[in-house]
Design a protein that fits this description.
It is built from 1 helix and 9 strands. The relative contact order is 0.20. It is mainly beta and 103 residues long. The protein has a 5-stranded antiparallel beta sheet. It is flat and about 40 Å long. The longest helix is centred in the N-terminal third of the chain and has 11 residues.
Length: 103
């Protein structure tokens, strides 16, 4: 899913989720021309603490979805995802040992 800008992404999430949070993610060791990563976090189902996370890479012309993860919970700072560049790949670490490598 792609949006023309960050405001269009916010509008979609406002319509699709009763409540959501958006956060600009920090990328360790990222190249200067990489752009920005935004995480949108929305509750899913009727269970307490279950979250869907949608990660978008945004530049001046568009925002493109590159990952979606269904977390069972994000209860503490230690469980929040971290991003880094390693050997030319974007690496997303989450939860207790979860890893996603995007080349």
């Amino acid at each position: 899913m792609e949006f023309r800008n960050l405001n269009a992404a916010k509008a979609w999430f406002t319509k699709s989720y009763d409540d959501y949070a958006m956060r600009k993610e920090t990328v360790a060791n990222g190249p200067k021309d990489f752009g920005d990563i935004y995480g949108f976090y929305g509750p899913r189902g009727s269970g307490i603490g279950r979250v869907e996370a949608w990660y978008y890479g945004c530049d001046r012309t568009s925002c493109s979805l590159f990952a979606m993860i269904k977390y069972s919970a994000l209860r503490s700072k230690e469980e929040e995802p971290t991003f880094s560049f390693e050997s030319g790949s974007l690496v997303l670490r989450y939860g207790k040992g979860g890893i996603l490598i995007l080349k």
